Amino acid sequence: MAKVYVIRGAILKCSCGSMKSRIMIPVSHGVYAAGQPKLNINDYKEGENITHFGFCNKTCGGDTREKGYDSKGNQVWRCKAKILGPWQGGQDNDLVENAPGLTDNCVTHCKYGGEISIEHHEQTPK
């Protein structure tokens, strides 16, 4: 299957999270697909590009995540994603502002053990 470029608003998922999220880009790199800005592998920053994934099912000791409770009263950890580095698997032969373009096969990782991936690139209907 061909790789598809990821654009602003694409749907992300974390292997440890309870909900999906959307990737954002505050300022366009100047390259567009389907009328939306394309992203590159450096668009991985917490709070700027990636927000949170609801509750985290990892219970790492000594971290700063906030405790919360689910609808059944069970203690859970609120997701505070700590991204370890750029997306892996970008399109090296098509640069977006001097970095490999972000494609739907890319992944990055959270310090708490989650693998973050692209669930839908948003260029076509799901």
UniProtKB/TrEMBL annotation:
Pfam families: DUF4280
Superkingdom, taxonomy of origin: Bacteria
Name of the protein described by the UniProt record: DUF4280 domain-containing protein
